[in-house]
Design a protein that fits this description.
By secondary structure, the protein is mainly α. Helix content is 76%, strand content 0%. It has 2 domains: 1-33, no CATH class; 40-95, TrpR-like (Trp Operon Repressor, Chain A, Orthogonal Bundle). Pfam families: Trp_repressor.
């Protein structure tokens, strides 16, 4: 875990997220806490990660998501050298 983000404020934020009970609550909370562009950017990165795990090409991902090749590369680096958070969530979603 990256110690730079492990602060009491970040822990409280994550506690708040874990309190959300359904999709409507997620929409309400994230619309309040994020700008529209921040939320769209987060969702784009997640879609890029999912598509990379499906072995899609950078060109295909860029065309479908509108993500730049720099963003796709950053997400790919996280998938290969990060904390496996994307994979954990993607796999759990497949199980459900």
């Amino acid at each position: 875990m990256n110690k730079k983000i492990k602060t009491p404020a970040v822990e409280k934020l994550f506690e708040a997220i874990l309190c959300l009970e359904n999709m409507d609550e997620c929409f309400d909370f994230f619309e309040d806490i994020c700008t529209i562009n921040e939320l769209l950017s987060l969702s784009q990165r997640f879609e890029v990660a999912r598509m990379l795990r499906e072995q899609r090409t950078y060109l295909e991902i860029a065309e479908k998501t509108g993500a730049s090749t720099a963003t796709i590369s950053r997400v790919n680096r996280s998938l290969n050298y990060g904390n496996d958070g994307y994979d954990m969530v993607i796999n759990r979603m497949k199980e459900n």
